[in-house]
Amino acid sequence: MDSGAYEPRLPVIPHLVIRTDGAARGNPGPASLGAALIDGSRADAFEPGAPPDATISEALGHQTNNVAEWTGVIEALKLAQRLGAERVDLFLDSKLIVEQLHGRWKVKDAKLQPLHAAAKVMLATFRRWSATHVPRAQNSTADRLANEALDRVAAGGPMRVARARRVAPPS
After folding, report:
1. Which helix (H) or strand (E) holds 77?
2. Which of 9, 21, 63, 130 satisfies CB 3.0 to 4.6 Å to 167 for a cystine?
3. Does the pTM exceed 0.85?
């Protein structure tokens, strides 16, 4: 039975620029992630302050900062898959994550090993991917989203807020 209601569809974005960040107030402590996904075809896509086409802001409970960082990457990659991306360019202020993704540093922490493995499996589903370390100042949107999650939950709000621009309804 069709109710006639229009269900919004997500856009298909073949190339995404992704900026993620994890936060922990105390380490470990209340933790969160922020992710900003930008359509890579936009002229401003690689600019640090480019307005995102999709975002995730999620509180994670009591975690370490590194768990929050890895979870941010994984959640952003999940959304990138839902958006139909074939190429992702990650810009992270965590040198640890970038070096571990590229295999230059070992993942010694047992809590991070399954997160690393999950991210690598997900990255293999894209035609191309890159991960680049950037200074924290160039990751302010993702940082803001992570901190918003902690503040929102402390005020009694939802654990997760994810947004994406929608495809216009059929005429």
Report:
1. helix 65-82
2. 9
3. yes
